[in-house]
Structure formats: C-alpha cells, structure tokens
Design brief:
Rossmann fold; AB_hydrolase_fold; ten-stranded mixed β-sheet; 343 residues; alpha/beta; lysophosphatidic acid acyltransferase activity; 10 strands
Length: 343
C-alpha cells in the first residue's frame, strides 16, 4: 500500500505467504482483516492462542514473520487484526480517520480478541507493539469488552504513563517533522514516514538494508489518525487494573516488556521505567491479596534480561523500534516464545 495519500486505498490487498490466511470478521462499522497462522496439520497445536496487536502506521501484516515462525516451529495458533483504516480492513475517509480516537481503535482490537476467544474456546496471550501496546493497556485498564488475557507482552510499547517522552525522542531524531507535516504534506499524519529514509531512521537499525525497509512500507496505511497519538500523551492506563485482567497468577511472570536496544523512540530507559511501574503494581496487588501470586525477587538472567516481581524485561540486542521486522527479529520472537512457554 502506498503511504502518504489523502484517499482510501482501493487496490488489491497485500499478498500473503502460504503460511498466512486472511479472513474478515464483523464489527459495528465494517469488516476487519484478521490474519492467522495455523500449526502444521501433522502436529498437536498448543492450546493457548497468541494474538498480535499492531501499532500506529502499521497493520496486521507487520506480524507475518512472528506468526509464521511461532506457528511452524512451536505449534502456536497465531492471529493478528488490522484496525479500521489499516491493512485490508474497512477504511474511513481521511478526515474521519484523522479524528478517530484511541477508544475506537481499542474496540477494533477487542473485536478481534473476542472473535479468537470464541473460535479457540480460551483466552489469548496478547502481544502488542508500540501504540498497539498502548491500545492493549488502555483496553484492559478500561475493561473494554470485559476481556481477560493469559499473558501480556509489550513490545516497544508506549508506556501506560503516557507518550510525551516517546514523541520527544522521535522529534529529536527528525527535527523537521512538524514543518514537513504541516507545510509540505498538509497535515497528513503519515508525513514522518513519507520516505524510506525516514522509516528507517524511526523504525529500524542502521544496518537494515533499504530494500527491506521499502518492502516494509507496503504494510503501512495511506493515512493515519492524529487523535490516536494525541490521546496517549498523558497517563491513559493503570498498571494495577491491567494486572488484574491477567489470568493465572502464581509462580513466574505473566507480563513481558520487550525492548529494542537501538529503539530511538521507546528507548530502553522508557521500557525500564515501565517495567518498574508494573513491578511496583504487582507487589502492591500481592500484598493486598488482589492477586494470588508469589513475589519472586528480581534476578538478572544476563545483561539483556531480568525476571521477577511478575515481569520479564528483555532487550533485543541491536534491534530498532520495529523489532518484529528488523534484522534481529528471530532473537525477538524466541524471547517472546520463552515467555509464552513458561506461562
């Protein structure tokens, strides 16, 4: 799909590899694209499905590598939804999309989660990236659709306390962003990603080939919401409420914070701060007996991972913000699998 347009995309949907299936699910406003990856037919599938939530300027297709790998190598049923205006889902007109709120996108996300819950007969492990991580935290905190999850993985996710630092980091690395957006591209929110160079600067490590970045751009929408990121600037979710929406507490960890070492926006420092918020919330909930779990002190597994107090913090060495599409994606997906496997 061609980025930076003021018109809805009307061409054919993105071609998918044989390992991925596209279907459509109903929502109150239109059909939503649902991608799925099933384990090989001669294997026994894992019981708990993995559900992926994309971030801003993305689509369900950003998860193709992770979904294919986890289904084929670890027998996990995998699903990903595209919110309205993204991927092959129904699309509002430009101005309607411009003012679409985080609540509307969160409802699209929950429509997908509930569909898979009914199909598979059990709650999902939810893995969410960037502003999709914000949507997931917001939806769980607000109790949208009364959804619960078996585990929550936040990959380069905007922290629950707000995106001000994230936005500032992006602007520091692209100082012409605001001028370009409003004086060259007439306010189109896709302006910061209007070239392969800008996409690489924001989302990928320095060593990622331009050809790979250009291929990734086919998974991005022609325009984006401006109200969505503005609605995330200050605190939008409560870690206390989120942790209470996760099933199965006991020993071990049920929340993963996965960071890209070279992420220029949601930096390692921001991920560490988010982790501390969740660990503090976990300890409080255990102490007041709101969740039945054992507090295991934080231990350093190695220089890229720590575990304890309900949360795994793991750093993908060398990876940029879009770690699931960067050169190091196999390292990231294996870290996600280790978290899933210990649930």
């Amino acid at each position: 799909m061609a980025p930076l347009s003021f018109f809805r995309y009307t061409g054919p949907p993105l071609a998918l590899p044989p390992s991925i299936t596209r279907t459509f699910i109903p929502s109150p406003n239109g059909q939503l694209e649902l991608l799925s990856a099933e384990p090989p037919k001669n294997t026994t599938p894992r019981k708990t499905p993995l559900f992926f939530a994309h971030g801003g300027c993305g689509s369900a297709a950003v998860w193709i590598e992770y979904m294919s790998y986890l289904a084929q190598n670890h027998n996990i049923p995998c699903y990903a939804v595209s919110y309205r205006g993204h991927g092959a889902s129904w699309s509002p007109w430009f101005l309607n999309m411009y003012f679409t709120t985080k609540r509307a996108f969160a409802e699209d996300l929950i429509e997908g989660v509930r569909f898979v819950r009914e199909k598979e007969g059990r709650d999902v492990v939810l893995a969410a990236h960037s502003a999709g991580g914000a949507l997931s935290q917001y939806a769980l905190s607000e109790g949208i659709g009364d959804v619960r999850v078996e585990g929550l993985a936040l990959l380069g996710a905007i922290p629950a306390y707000g995106s001000a630092d994230v936005n500032w980091n992006w602007m520091k690395n692209d100082p012409w962003m605001v001028i370009r957006m409003f004086f060259k591209h007439f306010g189109n929110p896709m302006s910061p990603l209007s070239s392969t160079r800008l996409v690489k600067n924001a989302f990928f490590c320095d060593d990622c080939p331009n050809e790979k970045v250009a291929e990734f751009r086919k998974r991005t929408p022609p325009f984006e919401s401006f109200a969505w990121p503005n609605g995330l600037m200050s605190r939008f979710a409560s870690p206390i409420k989120i942790l209470q929406r996760i099933n199965g507490w006991g020993d071990g960890e049920r929340l993963l914070v996965l960071a890209g070492e070279k992420d220029i926006m949601v930096t390692v420092k921001i991920n560490e701060k988010s982790t501390e918020e969740y660990r503090d919330a976990f300890k409080e909930l255990v102490q007041i007996k709101k969740i039945d779990a054992k507090i295991e002190h934080v231990t350093e597994v190695d220089d890229s991972e720590s575990r304890g107090e309900g949360v795994v913090l793991s750093i993908v060495k060398g990876a940029g913000h879009h770690m699931q599409n960067d050169l190091q994606w196999e390292d990231g997906v294996e870290r996600l699998y280790r978290f899933y496997d210990q649930l």
